[in-house]
TrEMBL record:
Signal peptide limits: 1-18
Key words of the record: Signal
UniProt protein name: Phosphate-selective porin O and P
Keyword Signal: yes
Length: 391
């Protein structure tokens, strides 16, 4: 691909003294335990996995040019689909006073809310990594950004599409029917070769951070067609207009994400908005406690491909602000149309300079059969422990 060729050309052109390359990264071991019996044949109650993510960075020309390479691989003893590798980042970046150019495989994040990132559409979700949707696959791209006073405007050309990952037959956190990731179908005749484009304008206006985005291309979230005993992903062509806004006022953060998405057959609106209030210095050691509340709405109602169409998220964030960077985030999502509920806790703490421990727990309860996504996961309560060693 042309973007990768530009990266390779940059690698050849730059000085390659080994002592100029910054090397870091992490290796990890992860244990998963599912307390409830599996719903579907072949699934088990837990397992181990190993991961590695090295990072190689090189800067030159007084920091105006840089090359970054971040590969990733996970081996999972239970689910062959979760054993996977990816190039999270392999890009060349060149900056001037008011411009920045990027070519290669990269990551871009848009959004401000906690419980769902509606407008974050550039990178595909790496679903097998984590159910929360925070992990992303690297996206081939060409990006050109013009810096403005207190803002920027960016153009993205995305020459290749990444399909979403899904758990295999032996994996937990999957639908009743296994997703056939080998036979995905597309609305576009170009399939994964379709060239997507996006525009993004960001601006800070006093206490308000504002973002407007437009995307034209292949939807990152597929629809599904049942073929025999499997689900086959179908990726539509869409046009999406997105808005994200955050107002900062003393201890308050007010947040909003909203979108309008259209395809050849229909269109819909969706939004998530709310606040986070921080109680600063609640202990003598300077710990902060944040209270979070967000509301989700989707005009598709029960036809939405997301379980968050008329739901409330309530959560709390605790940061001890200690030398070990101890943090905890806990929250619940309540469906206002039925009794479905989910609870999630994430905690992390460093031990020494090089070890980090991450603990996650998830409970899905009182699911309604009409809430198909959560109902299919009703026995997939999860406790997950990961130990990472950084270098």
């Amino acid at each position: 691909m042309k973007a990768l060729m530009l990266v390779l050309s940059a690698m050849v052109a730059m000085p390659l003294a080994a002592n100029d390359i910054e090397v870091s990264g992490n290796v990890g071991v992860e244990a998963r335990y599912f307390p409830q019996d599996a719903l579907y044949p072949g699934q088990e109650d837990g397992g181990l996995s190993l991961s590695i993510q090295p990072e190689f960075r090189r800067q030159w020309d007084n920091g105006r040019k840089s090359l970054t390479f971040i590969p990733f691989y996970r081996w999972d003893e239970k689910d062959d689909e979760r054993s996977h590798g990816d190039i999270r980042q392999l890009d060349f970046t060149m900056a001037s006073d008011n411009w920045e150019f990027q070519a290669g495989v990269g990551k871009v994040f848009w959004g401000v809310t906690e419980s769902q990132h509606l407008v974050d559409i550039i990178n595909q979700t790496d679903t097998v990594e984590n159910f929360d949707g925070e992990d992303k696959l690297g996206q081939p791209m060409l990006r050109m950004t013009r810096f403005l006073e207190n803002g920027s405007i960016g153009l993205f050309v995305l020459p290749y599409f990444r399909e979403r990952t899904f758990s295999g037959a032996e994996g937990r956190l999957r639908s009743p029917l296994v997703v056939d990731t080998d036979n995905a179908t597309y609305e576009s005749a170009d399939e994964e070769q379709h060239v997507d484009v996006a525009l993004r304008w960001e601006q800070t206006l006093d206490s308000v951070d504002l973002g407007l985005s437009y995307f034209d291309g292949t939807a990152r979230d597929p629809e599904f067609n049942q073929v025999g005993s499997t689900l086959v992903p179908y990726y539509r062509q869409i046009q999406q207009l997105g808005l994200d806004l955050q107002y900062t006022g003393d201890a308050w953060l007010w947040k909003l994400e909203a979108l309008r998405r259209e395809n050849a057959d229909t269109g819909y609106n969706a939004a998530v908005g709310g606040f986070e209030y921080t109680f600063a210095g609640i202990t003598e050691t300077g710990a902060d406690l944040g209270a979070i509340a967000e509301y989700h709405v989707d005009s598709r109602d029960e036809l939405a491909t997301s379980p968050l169409q008329n739901d409330v998220f309530l959560g709390a964030r605790l940061a001890l602000n200690d030398a070990e960077s101890t943090e905890l985030l806990a929250g619940t999502i309540l469906d206002l149309d039925n009794s479905s509920k989910s609870f999630r806790v994430e905690a992390s703490r460093r031990f020494g300079d090089n070890v980090k421990v991450n603990l996650e727990a998830q409970v899905i309860t009182d699911t309604d059969a009409e809430d198909a996504i959560l109902h299919g996961l009703r026995n997939d309560d999860l406790i997950q422990l990961e130990i990472q060693r950084y270098f």
